[in-house]
């Protein structure tokens, strides 16, 4: 029994010794959330039982999709105090390292949606390679929803089925949508009943529309950062509405009167143009005749002078 106790104590001692000598890398937060365009600092801490004479600390990142490849971002070499940054991340990613205090903080500036990834901090210390040498965290980049754009799909005519569309181009987390209708009678908005409409994402489907469907419709697009809206004014056309024939006859009569008036104006203008043309032609003829008469008179006088001179000789 005494021998068994000694063996048990020796086993516990080895377990404690091996646990103490193992490196432990830790990131306190499972997720860091930041707004697009802001800065973020990912803090990595590590503990080692030996005083490092040499250490290599690196940060890498991998996308959230299964096929995404891990990419090395930055590496720090101790005690040379040399830091290598991949060109794609230079200028935006900085590493603040204190090996003796066990800290390696990665700072990202002007965060973009592409920075929304899983980041790994890894610490390599020769002679202390047991235990947990790496830890991961997720950087979640949030972006407010952009102002949505509303539209109509289909023919807005009585008895038809149409869709009202609503879409925000940007937003992270992805936006949610809700359609509402403004009711002037009660002066408020009301959500739709399932038997007359169907909402799917940003699409509101309206079935067998009628004059009662006409009105002002609002779409709300939101995520946890911001809410934005757009609107559509729906005016349903009625093919067989009462009085439509009367309105058509009146419209035809108005169009006929307008056509007759236009014809009369054109006739008057034509007559005036013809009269002006005739007057111009007459004036031209008179001028031409007068000129011819003058020429004839001159010729006659010349002949008399010539004949007279012949008689005198």
Automatic annotation (TrEMBL):
Signal peptide: 1-22
Limits of the Ig-like domain: 23-142, 144-235
GO cellular component, one term: plasma membrane
Domain of life: Eukaryota
Family annotation (InterPro entries): A33 (IPR042474), Ig-like_dom (IPR007110), Ig-like_dom_sf (IPR036179), Ig-like_fold (IPR013783), Ig_sub (IPR003599), Ig_sub2 (IPR003598), Ig_V-set (IPR013106)
Keyword terms, alphabetized: Signal
The protein's name in its UniProt record: Cell surface A33 antigen-like
């Amino acid at each position: 029994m005494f021998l068994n106790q000694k063996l048990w104590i020796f086993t516990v001692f080895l377990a404690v010794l091996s646990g103490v000598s193992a490196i432990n890398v830790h990131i306190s937060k499972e997720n860091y959330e930041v707004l697009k365009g802001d800065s973020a600092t990912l803090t990595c801490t590590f503990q080692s039982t030996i005083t490092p004479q040499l250490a290599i600390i690196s940060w890498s990142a991998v996308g959230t999709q299964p096929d995404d490849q891990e990419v090395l971002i930055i590496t720090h070499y101790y005690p040379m105090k040399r830091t290598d940054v991949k060109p794609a991340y230079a200028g935006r990613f900085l590493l603040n390292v204190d090996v003796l205090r066990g800290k390696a903080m990665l700072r990202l500036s002007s965060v973009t949606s592409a920075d929304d990834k899983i980041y790994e901090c890894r610490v390599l210390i020769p002679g202390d390679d047991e235990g947990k040498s790496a830890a991961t965290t997720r950087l979640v980049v949030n972006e407010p929803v952009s102002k949505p754009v509303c539209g109509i799909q289909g023919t807005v005519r009585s008895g038809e089925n149409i869709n009202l569309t609503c879409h925000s181009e940007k937003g992270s987390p992805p936006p949610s949508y809700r359609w509402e209708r403004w009711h002037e009678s009660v002066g408020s908005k009301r959500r739709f009943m399932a038997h007359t409409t169907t909402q799917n994402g940003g699409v509101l489907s309206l079935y067998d529309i009628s004059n009662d469907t006409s009105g002002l419709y609002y779409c709300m697009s939101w995520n946890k950062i911001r809410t934005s809206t757009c609107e559509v004014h729906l005016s349903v056309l009625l093919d067989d509405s009462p009085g439509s024939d009367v309105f058509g006859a009146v419209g035809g009569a108005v169009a006929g009167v307008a056509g007759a008036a236009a014809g009369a104006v054109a006739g008057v203008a034509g007559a005036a143009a013809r009269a002006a043309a005739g007057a111009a032609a007459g004036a031209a003829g008179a001028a031409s005749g007068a000129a011819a008469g003058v020429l004839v008179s001159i010729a006659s006088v010349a002949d008399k002078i010539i004949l007279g001179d012949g008689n005198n000789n």
